[in-house]
Design a protein that fits this description.
The complex is a heterodimer of chains A (637) and B (175). Helices cover 38% and strands 25% of the residues of chain A. With 175 residues, chain B is mostly helical. Chain B folds into 2 domains: 60 residues, DnaJ domain (Helix Hairpins, Orthogonal Bundle); 85 residues, Monooxygenase (Up-down Bundle). Chain B contains 7 helices and no strands. The chains are: A alpha+beta (637), B mainly alpha (175). Chains A and B meet through helix 8, helix 10, strand 19, strand 22 and helix 12 of A and helix 2 and helix 3 of B.
């Protein structure tokens, strides 16, 4: 990095650097990682040639075990073996206990930060997810032969802010750079969009409205997208972040316990290991019934007894029918939100392992009146779409025409008088989005205001998800209704919310990066990171230094290519000043490893370059926007 | 920046929606944060801001009532606040009748046809007002613009009724 290299105008300064990127499908039951290799997205295999990593983490005395190895402990050591952690992430204890009353774990911690007691101490669901991510990232770096620049992690489209934030925190804990959180159905649409939908034999097939029906192990999503010349515009999304194949299993378990309990000696409370065994048998039965008309379920009971019973497909279908109907109701609402009728849908894409259940397929087919697409393995399609997007986001495909326009799944609002929710951003709004609304004081002389941020569709605060509370203090005393408090909601491209509040006349401001009440605090994450390092203080410093060096490199690259492309927008003086700033940045970055103030020096040098280039960046953006439309109108003539 | 200028469209209430949508997509292809995912933090932040503005502009112009409000705001028309009392008593009385009509839907003998009829009533009355709005906005006078404000307010009442009807329908036909 001795001399600044300047490339041809319009060309990247580093034309041939291929950045390693991957897409991760962090699923409830199974997880996968995929990457684009020589133009083709494919799932990456472990040493035993398996691509599916069961989302199971077992906390053993001397090690943390992940995947199939952890699954081996599922029954024998149920309390220390966490399966389906995705169902717990970003949720309150109350929420978890109500939805899943028979989990084999011992919950500790408080209402908003439920932890699981294991023999390795208290473990948060975020940490469980982070172990899975770590294992996948390691696999990718091994398979790709280098360090990952960044990853795209998929989340259910219907995940709320707390669940999204917790997923991002898990990546942070795992030391993985997240390029984007991508909605699972959108990822699947990308995988299909580049494959079957754009194939030549289907007329006009890369334009039109498609539906993605995504039933995974623990979550259900329906997304309605309009495809047009590489643009994937999500028109509406709906679903249930607590409905999936696991729930089919639970229904079978409940049926077995309720109807055969006395006969078989299965009376609750059962031991954690027996609960786990029941679940495994139920899952086995479900899988067998995709091809068989009946299945025999065997349970080994305490005292060397065993119990056997038969479940028929008709009976299984009858048990799960209400849940399948529930998914179709969500489909109907999403279509309504998108203002689309089933006749306008040109393709229905099936995603998620639970769409293998025959009743699910036939009901979806009936509802949409067309045979759903299943040509890409429903277990892999999300990871493949994520890999394609990761490759683009990492900058490996500068000419890519693909653009994903996604939406927020649930309305965002704040509490007003009387326990009512005032919606600020309605559901299915395209992100990123920034919206402001003004509120006023209720009492004379009121100097503070509590702001309670909520997510959900219902009118009452109690029926919505509480995301965060914060206070705006120091409002000058005025008569009731005279103050103008402007509350601004900003949702970024990951679907994450930030809220700010300001009193307009006095400019008193309060700012909160909505850290949902049900996630980890920033300090906890730092603590966990430090705990995980053998030489904590030093390792932490090294990591932070590396992060700053990476950012310095990004700044250098992007300012250099900006200068190469649009340097003529600036006066020579400004160009020289920017060049000086860049030289300084190169200089401090080179010296940073030896300097005690290295991290801070880079930060300051970056801030300086940012300041010097702020106007330039804005000019470039505006000019590229003008050019986009100029080119556009020429196209249309 | 003015939203019509942003999309290089004429400042007019009648709008070619497909042109709006393709201009929107062309702009997002240059400004969306995904295009800057590997760029510096500064550029990423700028992209989020621009992209959010483009999204907001698109939503505003796409929705006819929001578009009308935007045009009236652009023309500096004095808009009465949402809370200001409504002068047209005849209109208010009629709104109450329409509310009653919706409330009685669930007890109708033939729910299906009652819902259809209610929808048609709301749609027809909405359309009549909407045509009025179009004409007023084309007039380009202060007086017409002030009247247009009132028509927009009335149309919003209808929008609420339509939402209410949808909610009732969902309740009636669910499960």
């Amino acid at each position: 990095m001795a001399l600044l290299q300047i490339a041809e105008p319009g060309q990247s300064t580093v034309p041939h650097e291929h950045r390693l990127a991957a897409g991760i499908d962090l699923g409830t039951t199974n997880s996968l990682i995929a990457s684009v290799k020589s133009g083709l997205a494919e799932t990456l295999l472990d040493d035993n040639n398996r691509d599916i990593l069961p989302s199971v983490v077992s906390y053993q005395a001397d090690a943390i075990v992940v995947g199939d190895d952890a699954k081996a402990f599922a029954v024998s050591d149920a309390e220390n073996t966490i399966i389906s952690a995705k169902r717990l992430i970003g949720r309150s204890l109350n929420d978890i206990e109500q939805k899943y009353p028979n989990l084999p774990y011992q919950f500790v911690g408080n209402e908003n930060h439920p932890n699981i007691q294991t023999r390795q101490g208290e473990i948060n669901p975020v940490q469980v997810s982070s172990e899975i991510l770590k294992s996948l990232a390691k696999r990718a770096e091994h398979a790709l032969g280098g360090e990952l620049t960044g990853v795209v992690i998929t989340v259910p489209a219907y995940f709320d802010d707390a669940q999204r934030q917790s997923t991002k925190d898990a990546a942070k804990l795992a030391g993985i750079e997240v390029l984007r959180l991508l909605n699972e159905p959108t990822a699947a649409a990308v995988a299909y969009g580049l494959d079957s939908l754009s194939s030549a034999d289907q007329k006009n097939s890369n334009e039109g409205v498609i539906a993605v029906y995504d039933l995974g192990g623990g979550t259900f999503d329906i997304s309605i997208l309009r495809l047009n010349k590489g643009v994937f515009e999500v028109l509406a999304t709906g679903g249930d972040s607590a409905l999936g194949g696991d729930d089919f299993d639970l229904l079978v378990v409940d049926y077995l316990v309720k109807n055969l309990g006395e006969e078989a000696g299965l009376v609750r409370p059962l031991s954690p290991s027996l609960e786990r065994q029941l679940l495994q048998q139920a899952c086995f039965a479900k899988e067998q019934l995709t091809t068989q008309s009946s299945v025999e379920v065997k349970l080994s009971l305490p005292n060397n007894n065993s119990f056997t019973t038969t479940i028929t497909k008709e009976h299984f279908d009858q048990l799960i029918k209400p849940l399948v109907s529930k998914t179709l109701r969500a489909c109907r609402r999403a279509l309504k939100d998108a203002q689309i009728t089933t006749d306008e849908i040109i393709e229905v894409v099936m995603v998620g392992g639970s769409t293998r259940v025959p009743l699910v397929r036939s009901e979806v087919e009936n509802y949409f009146k067309r045979t759903p697409l299943t040509s890409i393995d429903p277990d892999k399609v999300v990871a493949i779409g994520a890999a394609i997007q990761a490759d683009i986001l990492a900058g490996n495909k500068p000419d890519s025409d693909i653009l994903l326009l996604d939406v927020i799944p649930l309305s965002l609002g704040i509490e007003t008088m009387g326990g009512l929710v005032e919606k600020i951003i309605p559901r299915n709004t395209t992100i990123p989005v920034a919206k402001a609304q003004e509120f006023t004081t209720f009492k004379d002389g009121q100097t503070a205001m509590a702001i309670h941020v909520l997510q959900g569709e219902r009118e009452l605060v109690d029926d919505c998800r509480s995301l965060a509370r914060f206070e705006l203090r120091g409002i000058p005393p005025m008569t009731a209704g005279a103050a103008h408090i402007r509350v601004t909601f900003k949702v970024d491209a990951d679907g994450l919310l930030k809220v700010t509040a300001m009193e307009k006349s006095s400019k008193v401001a309060a700012y909160i990066e909505v850290k949902p009440a049900f996630g980890l605090e920033e300090s906890q994450i730092t603590q966990m990171l430090t705990d995980s390092m053998s030489n904590a203080e030093q390792d932490m410093q090294a990591r932070m230094l590396k992060e700053q060096q990476v950012e310095a490199k990004r700044v250098l690259e992007s300012v250099q290519s900006a200068l190469a492309a649009d340097g003529d927008l600036l006066t020579e003086e400004v160009r020289n000043n920017i060049a000086k700033g860049l030289f300084n940045l190169v200089d401090v970055t080179q010296k940073s490893a030896e300097s005690v103030t290295g991290i801070k020096d880079i930060e300051e040098a970056i801030a300086q370059v940012d300041k010097l280039t702020a106007h330039f960046a804005e000019l470039r953006m505006d000019s590229s926007i003008r050019q986009a439309l100029a080119g556009h109108s020429v196209d249309e003539i | 920046m003015n939203y019509f200028d942003l999309f290089a469209l004429p400042h007019s209430f009648s709008l070619d929606l497909s042109q709006l949508s393709s201009a929107f997509q062309a702009l997002q292809k240059t400004a969306h944060p995904d295009k800057f995912a590997h760029a510096s933090a500064q550029e990423q932040l700028l992209a989020v801001q621009k992209s959010a503005t483009i999204n907001d502009a698109y939503q505003t112009l796409k929705n006819p009532l929001k578009r009308a409000e935007y045009i009236l705001l652009e023309r500096d028309t004095d808009m009465p606040s949402e809370q200001a009392s409504f002068q047209d008593n005849f209109f208010l009385m009629h709104q109450m009748e329409l509310h009653e009509m919706l409330e009685e839907l669930s007890t109708a003998d033939d729910v299906d046809s009652a819902v259809d009829q209610a929808r048609e009533t709301l749609d027809t009355e909405f359309q009549t007002l909407f045509i009025q709005l179009e004409q007023l906005l084309q007039t380009h006078s202060n007086e017409a613009d002030t009247k247009a404000c009132e028509v927009v307010r009335k149309l919003k009442f209808y929008q609420k009724l339509q939402l209410e009807l949808e909610r009732i329908e969902e309740q009636l036909f669910d499960d």
